[in-house]
Amino acid sequence: MRENMDLIDIREVLVDKNLPKHERIAEYIRQIKDPYHFKCGKFTITAKFAESGPTLEDCLQRIMV
Q1: What does the pLDDT look like over 14-63, one tens digit per residue?
Q2: Long-range contacts made by residues 43-50, C-beta under 8 angstroms, separation at least 24?
Q3: Distance CA 7, CA 24 (A)
Q4: Which three-class secondary structure state does DSSP give residue 12?
Q5: CA 65, CA 60: separation in Å to the nearest integer?
Q6: What are the helix (H) ranges across the chain?
Q7: 3 vs 10, 34, 63, 64, CA distance in Å?
Q8: Count of Cβ atoms closer than 10 Å to residue 26 Cβ
Q9: What is the distance, to the nearest Å, from the Cα of residue 28 to the centroid of all Cα atoms in its chain?
Q10: Residues in CB range of 32: below 8 A, 6 or more apart
């Protein structure tokens, strides 16, 4: 896991909504570095998913549509 000081602040991630869906997802991942561990302002976010729940890709697609 990355140190808190190295984490990317999700508020600084900008993705062109005109890109095709798969390119928007790739650009988000490129910028955020670790989609499971990032900052949002003063908060550190650590995402975990249940084995029977939706995949990270499913969740990102719902956000980026």
Answers
A1: 999 999 999 999 999 999 999 999 999 999 999 887 888 888 788 888 88
A2: 44/4, 44/7, 45/10, 46/1
A3: 20
A4: helix
A5: 9
A6: 21-32, 56-64
A7: 15, 12, 26, 27
A8: 13
A9: 6
A10: 8, 10, 13, 38
Contacts of 7 (CB under 8 A, 6+ apart): 34, 37, 38, 39, 44
Per residue in 6-16, pLDDT tens?
A: 999 999 999 99
Residue type, position 21, single letter: K
CA 60 to CA 26: how far, in whole Å?
10
Report the amino acid identity of residue 64.
Answer: M
pTM of the model: 0.65
Residue type, 37: H
